[in-house]
Amino acid sequence: MSIQRRTITVVILCNLILGFATRAEINADDPDLVSQKIGYTQVRQSPRRKAEEHTHLSGDYLQR
Amino acid sequence: MIDNENATTQFAGWSPDGRQAIINRGWQDPENAQWEEEHKTFRMEKGYWELDSVLYDLDTGAFTNVSAVERVSHYNGGLFFLPDNKGLGFSPLINGSSKSFMMDLDGKNKRDVTGEDTGFAYGYSASPDGEKISYHENYQIYLSNADGTDKQHIDTGNPFNFGPRWSPDGEWLLFLSGIHHHSNPFVVRRDGSGLKKLVDLGDYQSYISFLDVPDFHEGSSDLPVWSTDGQSVFYTAKVEENVELFEISVEGEIKQLTKSAPGTLHYHPQPSPDGKYLVYGSKREGVRQLFVMRCYDHQEYQITQLKPGEGAMWPHWQP
């Protein structure tokens, strides 16, 4: 299969500080991949907070 | 959804038809955050934390806070769709204890299905046929009918059991078992028989920090997952100083999918709905990015380009 430039759309519907949407481009040689979407969360260290405080901003399965 | 500086959001999954995204909206009192860090313990009473699950309709752009409809708790996590659009499952925190609840698709008719003798229960999901539910309660695995009746304890003999996940055919549960920070994947049949350890994780702690900063909460669990066809399990395990990505077939054949530079971490593997790809996180060169691997030839693509100080977590394929 020839290598072609393809684009996969990655939807960021939310993050831990500010919500925004973006797209990530990759080179892929499989047409099936370009039509698929992945939701995920982007975390980042807030300038308003100390680094050690940032990770309080979490959810998911916390191993208590 | 970010309505004040201490609010957060998290992408938590999709509806079965892929038209709605599940987004968690959280908030923590900053003074409580400081108190928790100083005391190395959770303090999650009302007024200190908030967590709601919101459905975002991609066609209309509408947000529906199903947690807020006939609200039962200030902290509502773990939302998932029951099979055949029969409703939603979630885990509210009530009187200091996490419960397994169901509700209708519009958020009404919230009801406790945790059953009798309840402790702290989460990691909750329904079997593909909708007839059974599973969860861990006080770090023990339980199965019951969907209405909470006929509750059955899966006795592994281990003090830490976590995150049961149904196989695609609904016949098996996959979960971690061992002691906290030193557990391994186990499987058991839905009738409680056939309990066995699947593989050894090399003493992997089974959680991933969000960023490289101290956090007693221990970040996010990093759990094994079934392949789309149920014929194998993807997992992460420690190899020297790395955490590498593996696949084990139901027959026990192990494939190491990544062989990385020293210091590399992998986490949160998720197979695509068609089974052709695997998305996962990986920390390389100091930044946690998302990658997609094509399963048949292990061709890998990096799909995020985050900067130092940022990280990509919890990928979910749209159905």
What is the topology?
The complex is a heterodimer of chains A (64) and B (319).
Chain A (H helix, E strand, L loop, with lengths): L9 E6 L15 H4 L3 E7 L6 H4 L10
Chain B lengths: L6 E8 L5 E9 L1 H10 L9 E9 L5 E3 L10 E6 L6 E7 L2 E2 L2 E3 L7 E2 L8 E6 L5 E6 L2 E6 L6 E3 L5 E7 L5 E8 L2 E8 L6 E2 L9 E2 L11 E2 L3 E2 L5 E8 L2 E8 L4 E3 L8 E7 L5 E8 L2 E8 L5 E3 L7 E8 L2
Antiparallel strand pairs in B: 1-2, 2-3, 3-4, 5-6, 6-7, 6-8, 8-9, 10-11, 11-12, 12-13, 14-15, 15-16, 16-17, 18-19, 20-21, 21-22, 22-23, 24-25, 25-26, 26-27
How many β-strand runs of chain A? 2
Average predicted local confidence, pLDDT of chain A: 48
Write the H/E string of chain B, N to C.
EEHEEEEEEEEEEEEEEEEEEEEEEEEEE
Mean pLDDT rating of chain B? 91
What kind of assembly state do the chains in view correspond to? heterodimer
Q: Write the element-wise H/E pattern of chain A from the N-terminal end onward.
A: EHEH
Strand order of the largest sheet of chain A: 1-2
Class per helix and strand makeup of chain A: alpha+beta
The number of distinct β-strands of chain B equals 28
DSSP helix fraction of chain B: under 10%
